[in-house]
Design brief:
Elements (H helix, E strand, L loop, with lengths): L8 H15 L5 E7 L6 H21 L1 H12 L8 H22 L3 H7 L2 H19 L9 E7 L4 E6 L1 H6 L2 H16 L3 H19 L15 E2 L1
Parallel strand pairs: 1-2, 1-4
Antiparallel strand pairs: 2-3
Helix pairs in contact: 1-9, 2-3, 2-4, 8-9
Length: about 230
């Protein structure tokens, strides 16, 4: 299934222009990344399917007559004795059906992401943001002044990851204000506006701590990266 289109070409141009403007006043380098999702959560989907299978087995233990009667009704197979092999086969069949049904239900992406626990989403988004930072910004600037603004749409989460020189000078609480400014427009569906505002605020912070040198060059691309 193709990923949704969150930004138009005009939105991309606005964000790139905002990055270029912010970097005009600082030696910092801002990298922006927009992800449709940060993980496939296949393990979580399988875990929910296993839970559904075990619940079905529990229901079979509590109400065996219901399942046995249903089996006989569907197969018109009545008037026989239930052997241990048949009971085990029934249990395995019920568990397999429930497992497959739950897995199939989670092919509907809104349900799948709704079932992912919040802490798991937060952990996976953070891990993916760190990978993106290491690939796209970490130690790729002369003064270690790269910073990543990462937005993951399906998880409704964002991350700001700064290189060593920035992290040494800027308190982590400062990025909380940037996150608030980023997410407020995003919640209203104005993704580009949120990114532009966040870039501007990050640029102002960098300008205070890392003013632009006369010989400063643009070391990283200004364009938004979509993954």
């Amino acid at each position: 299934m193709p990923a949704p289109i969150y930004l138009s070409p005009e939105d991309h141009a606005r964000i790139s222009a905002a990055v270029g403007e912010a970097e005009m006043h600082s030696s910092g380098e801002i990298v922006t990344v927009l992800a449709d999702r940060s993980d496939g959560y296949t393990d979580v989907a399988l875990a929910w399917s296993v839970v559904a299978a075990f619940l079905a087995l529990g229901a079979l233990v509590l109400a065996p007559g219901f399942y046995m009667g249903l089996y006989e009704h569907l197969l018109a197979d009545w008037g026989h004795e239930w052997t241990p092999r048949m009971i085990i086969g029934l249990a395995a069949g019920v568990a397999a059906i429930k497992f497959g049904a739950m897995l199939a239900l989670q092919l509907w992406q809104p349900l799948k992401f709704w079932l992912v626990p919040g802490p798991v989403k937060t952990m996976r988004v953070h891990a993916h943001a760190l990978r993106a930072f290491r690939i796209g910004a970490e130690q790729r600037t002369t003064g270690r002044t790269g910073i990543l603004i990462y937005l993951s749409m399906r998880e409704h989460r964002a991350e700001i990851v700064a290189d060593r020189a920035i992290a040494a000078k800027v308190d982590p609480e400062v990025w909380g204000e940037v996150m608030t400014a980023l997410l407020a427009p995003v919640r209203e569906g104005r993704v580009a506006d949120g990114m532009v505002v966040a870039v501007g605020k990050v640029g102002a912070i960098l300008a205070r701590h890392f003013p632009r040198d006369d010989d400063d060059i643009n070391e990283l691309p200004d364009r938004l990266i979509e993954v």
